[in-house]
TrEMBL record:
Protein name: F-box domain-containing protein
Biological source species: Adineta ricciae
Length: 255
């Protein structure tokens, strides 16, 4: 029995040694299947070589949604912003106030190779700091900005005492300077989109829309659009009178 245990331990040790000997390029290939926090949890404590490989890894995909505070701070202290390609920020429930701490560590314009960003229920103050600077991210192709509860409240509010976010200057700047370069967009803003040209847009997700005319105008301004997902408000029926010949997929829900 003891010999069997020793044999098993030797096999495990041998397999682990083989894993350690994998090339750096192969580790990078493996890392492509993991979020950054998963890479840190799974590999960073194995040995010094693998830890150094992680530190030099140059295409981090960071998802800060529902993440532990200790892991959040570890990642912020360990990564170089120019090596991040995808970023998810969230102030939702268990990560309340996260965006404020993130902005203590970084300025968004440091993420020069960022291609995708998703903002989930971010605090208004953080949005005011983030949105006006997104135009500096020349590699940005995908933006999700559709879960900010405070913005949603402002847009749907009928109370004239509540300022409408449609007239919010950072939003206008975002539409004019950032939206035209995107290939993927998910947003609660609709009226602002009717005057924006989308020469590169392939996929569009509109979380709330209450006028069919908005859709027709978007079709006119997005000649390459392949997929459209829309949540219609107050619609009894929906007809597509404006042709969009590039469109391959249409998903429609009604609330």
């Amino acid at each position: 029995m003891k010999n069997q245990d020793n044999s098993k331990c030797s096999t495990i040790k041998y397999q682990f040694t083989l894993f350690e000997q994998l090339s750096t390029e192969l580790f990078y290939d493996i890392f492509e299947y993991f979020w950054t926090e998963e890479i840190f949890h799974s590999f960073s404590n194995l040995n010094h070589r693998i830890k150094s490989i992680i530190e030099l890894y140059y295409v981090h995909r960071i998802n800060f949604q529902s993440i532990r505070k200790s892991t959040f701070h570890l990642i912020c202290q360990s990564i170089l912003p120019e090596r991040v390609s995808s970023l998810v920020l969230s102030d939702q429930n268990d990560t309340c106030g996260q965006s404020k701490f993130f902005l203590l560590h970084f300025q968004i314009e440091q993420f020069t190779n960022l291609r995708s960003i998703k903002l989930i229920k971010l605090e208004h103050e953080s949005l005011c700091r983030l949105l006006p600077n997104l135009f500096k991210l020349k590699q940005l192709q995908s933006l999700s900005l559709n879960n900010s509860t405070r913005i949603q409240m402002h847009i749907n509010s009928e109370d004239k005492k509540v300022p409408r976010m449609l007239d919010w200057s950072p939003l206008h700047q975002l539409c004019n300077q950032v939206f035209p370069q995107l290939t993927n967009l998910s947003t609660i803003y609709t009226t602002n989109l009717t005057t924006v040209h989308f020469p590169n847009l392939l996929h569009l997700d509109l979380c709330t829309i209450d006028r069919e005319v908005y859709i027709r105008k978007i079709f006119q301004h997005a000649p390459r659009l392949k997929s459209l997902t829309i949540d219609l408000i107050y619609f009894r029926e929906f007809t597509m009178n404006q042709p969009c010949y590039s469109l391959k997929q249409l998903n429609v829900t009604s609330t």
